[in-house]
Design a protein that fits this description.
Blueprint: H1 49-61, H2 64-80, H3 86-99
Length: 102
Amino acid sequence: MQIYPKHTGPLRPETTRNTPIDSPVTSPIRPAAPAPSSADRSDKVEISNAGRALSARSDSLAPASAGADRTSTIRGRVLNGAYDTLEVVDAVARRLLDSGDA
């Protein structure tokens, strides 16, 4: 396919035709609305009174040191390589697949 141009010379203002873009603007130009700042796009979390009550109840049921003791025990096992076996890896993989998180 060949395209044959109608105008072979340079474009000059007097030879171009008016387009809707070149026509006078009837309404004043207004600046665009500013984009929301990063502060406007941040996530927010609100905890309900029921959630606070549930948290307070669960905190009173378990001693505070129980979590720290358990964490310390598990940390020691990890550092000693207790979980570096195929059986443990297989059990973790199966639980992930069963839970649907994988």
